[in-house]
Amino acid sequence: MIRVLLVDDHAMLRAGFRTILSTQPDIEVVGEAGTGSEGVELAARLRPDVITMDVQMPDMDGVEATRRIVADPAITASVAIVTTFDRDEYLFQALDAGAGGFLLKNAGPEELIAAVRALAAGDGILAPEVTRRVLARFAATPLPSHLPSPPPTRRRRKVRRERMPCRRSR
């Protein structure tokens, strides 16, 4: 069972998300919060698997709430920012805060359900509308000229030993 916490300052939106998610036999909405600080408190108390988080809320925005949730080693939930605002500042701040996903509220019910399942499985999710911008930002970031090689695998070490000339003591 995937345990979900809904965090949004609009009760009608939380009710809609609850209705959509409750139709699924493998998803259970375990709590709702109307502010970011309530979301942080409920995440610590209820231990959900996935949290849907609005960006703009009273008292603490969703980015700061996400940052606090992700920083708490006792909370293992993945956070999906779900917002009406398709803005780079929210997108990249949310990802920098540790959000596992970013969805727009114009997504359909199937997309919300799929996102919850993907996050619960340990995958990340991005709204199709923002994916190209994330890729463009990544591509614009220069990589180091020399990336360290990964440590050799057991198989590679064995092959190296087999290819080395025998050294016998005399």
From TrEMBL:
Coiled-coil ranges from the UniProt annotation: none
Domain of life: Bacteria
Entry-annotated residues carrying 4-aspartylphosphate: D54
Entry protein name: Response regulatory domain-containing protein
Chain positions covered by the region annotation Disordered: 142-170
Compositionally biased residues, Basic residues: 153-170
Location of the Response regulatory domain: 3-120
Keywords, comma-separated and alphabetical: DNA-binding, Phosphoprotein, Transcription, Transcription regulation
SMART domains cross-referenced by the UniProt entry: REC
